[in-house]
User: Fold this.
Amino acid sequence: MKTKILSILGLCKRANRLVSGEGFALEKIKSNKAKLVFLASDAGVNTTKRIKDKSSFYNVFVIDSFSTDELSKAIGKNNRKVIVVTDSGFAKKIMNLL
Assistant:
């Protein structure tokens, strides 16, 4: 299941349907373009609080069961703590796998 979700994240990246990084993620959440948020399980306390608070306020589901390393490898970038899926189709597919 985890590997399927991570491979879908890779597809999202290639389809240009996700953003990564805390600043970009918060921007997408605030503009209601975020469909699903991935937060690294080993993210810092401040980052975790900021992302979870904004996500709950804007009713965006947060998945925090992946490590920074897993998320970073899935999208081919280094040290990514926050990933936002902006496509409802990909988000629905991931939610179905959960």
Q: What stands out?
A: The helical segments are 2-14, 22-30, 45-57, 68-75, 88-97. The chain has a mean pLDDT of 94. The radius of gyration is 12 Å.
